[in-house]
Design a protein that fits this description.
110 residues, alpha/beta, 4-stranded parallel sheet, two-stranded antiparallel sheet
Length: 110
């Protein structure tokens, strides 16, 4: 499909990805490969742990380079009210939300 000049099947679909490591980022990458606009939310500091996981090339994980393609990243501290507010705004504008966090004190539906 890429390079064919035809619109990709998920063009116009907005995705917010809150996942970490493999499962969430893989799902986001797959949607982005088919044309979805994917915004990845990462924690402050080191970002997604996948950035430093396993094989590194020039200080960045090869896994990260593959799983983050075709995405835009934004840093939000979801432990703070302002980060949660921004995440909720992005989620309200999205067609799809991907998350694979452990259950914790902050929930998307709040």
């Amino acid at each position: 499909m890429p390079g064919s000049g035809a619109a990709l099947p998920l063009a116009g679909v907005k995705v917010v990805e809150l996942g970490q490591l493999i499962a969430g980022p893989f799902a986001g990458k797959t949607l982005a490969d088919f044309g979805a606009e994917v915004i990845k939310i990462e924690p402050p500091g080191e970002g997604d742990p996948l950035r430093k996981w396993r094989l590194l090339h020039q200080g960045t994980s090869v896994w990260w380079q593959v799983q983050s393609r075709n995405k835009r990243s934004v840093v939000l501290d979801l432990r703070k009210a302002k980060g949660q507010e921004i995440a909720r705004r992005l989620i309200r504008e999205a067609d799809v939300v991907i998350e694979n966090f452990r259950r914790g004190p902050w929930r998307i539906g709040d």
